Amino acid sequence: MLFVVAGLLRAINTKFLAPATAWFQNKFLPKLENFYERTLQYSLRGKRPTWFFAGTFGLLFVSILLFMAFPPKVLFFPETPPKQVYVYLEYPIGTDIEVTNKLSIDVENKIQNHLKKYEVDGKNVLITSVIGQVGEGTSDPNRGQDGGTTPNKARVTVDFVKFIERGDIDTEEVLIEIRELLKDIPGVDIIVDRPADGPPAGAPINIEVSGDDYEQLLATAEDIKQFI
Asked: Total structural domains in the chain?
């Protein structure tokens, strides 16, 4: 078998590769070198080097202008449909945990009732679970992590089925539906968002207040929140 392969390779080399190499070295390459030489002689004659140099920069400038005027529609990091939806609930500091827990249960029920439209033969084909969590570990990561317990905060997590099992259902639209469903609940801050992919990042707009007087800082921060 080895001798057959060696003979076949030798035949291919003799019949095709050797003639192709000879043609490239003896015909194509000399013509290419002659063309390159004539081009250099033409470009370096008289004032042409200056014009070619200026033309190169002009072409670069025009390319930048065209890129700014007609930016390509390229999305380097496209967002995929969310695998989960997080609902962050936040009452004012000092709220009893039972009050927060009751709201969390109410929100769970609202979401489950709203998503019943995706049930087929008594089984929901879109979601696998709707789970509420109250207290520690429920803060919105875009607002920074809170140390210790947070009885005034809760998080409801909606888990969707795998992408391949969703059919034509767009979970991004479902996220918007949940946001509209919960927007009118009074007395509580509600954020409906998707899990953050990649490294932790701050909110799109972040306002920080610094100073030595802690009480004044709290009052100023509250005034800014009310103003916004």
From this structure: 2
